[in-house]
Specification:
The chain is α+β, with helices and mostly antiparallel strands and about 350 residues long. The protein has helices spanning about 10-15, 65-70, 135-140, 185-195, 200-215, 255-265, 285-295, 315-345; strands at about 1-5, 25-35, 55-60, 75, 80, 85-95, 110-115, 120, 150, 160-170, 175-185, 225-230, 240-245, 255, 285, 305, 315.
Amino acid sequence: MASENNSDTLSIETVAQIKYKNLPFYEVIDEVIKPTLLTGTNICTLAQFPEGMKEAIFKLVLSREQVNFVSMNRTISHGKFEYPYYQYQIRICQFIEPVPNESPDYMPLGLRIRVNTRECQLPLIPFNAQPELTLALRLECRRSADPIDCTENVKLSPINYNDITINWNPDNKKYVFSMYLVKKLTAETLVKKLQDKGGRPIEETKNIIIETLSNDDPELATTSTYRFSLVCPLSMMRMKIPTKSIHCDHLQCFDATYFILMNEKKPTWKCPICNKPCFYNDLLVDNYFLEVVSSPTLKDCTNEVEILPDGTWRIYEDIKKIAEFGWNVGWSYMKRRMTIIRTSSV
């Protein structure tokens, strides 16, 4: 249960329609505070603050289930509680009408959040946000669009109130605030979920290959064959789980594990091949190329295969060796002929 100190002309039902952009590494367990419009007063309890800063105060009592999820799954390291599995997560977005299907996180200017008087660690200010400004002025900039983990500051009690105080500088935009109980997911878990989806059928990819390589239109056709790299552009190693977005129209894939690990460290969710948006929910393992990289006929040194117009493939290294063998045989024959000619002329 949460209460806020102000109301607004927008209806609760309208604001409640907000659905935040999906965060692949977090699974929502419960909605602790429903999407609520941030409407503050000019009374600010910060020791120092710029003129015109707004303040909104929420009072929250957690349910016993919400408390137990976190308290029973925390660990202790060097005398300090850590929360590796579950956390309370604050999310803020801009309110836009009509309400979109998904609202990305968007931070108000000069954002400050305190839970039970303790400051929450906020997303970083982008380094390119006017670096010539002083630290005090940089704090008034808009922070990166990320969720806010406030778990360490929350009272894990089903009877005591938690006070959440939010300060920001108004900029004629409307903002929505929510709080969730989430489970943190590992890259390994996301890879397993991706594999469990089943992937793109082999025949579907094969038909795309046949259609692409047999196209009579010279503007659409590429070549009579296609060289497919088995090397992931991210890890520069042989792919184990060839994957791409359902929205990508290229044949080339990347390795699912390395792509997900990369986005765990720095979430960009961009295709490393075409640079288009490549969100986790749009990923699909390509079973045709999974069969290729799993083939026992591949050698450790094989980095490419050649895709043929009929949808089959062959090892590219073998093709090069045949060509090199033919060239060497021809050169040996020419050298023998030259030797014979020189001998006969003496």
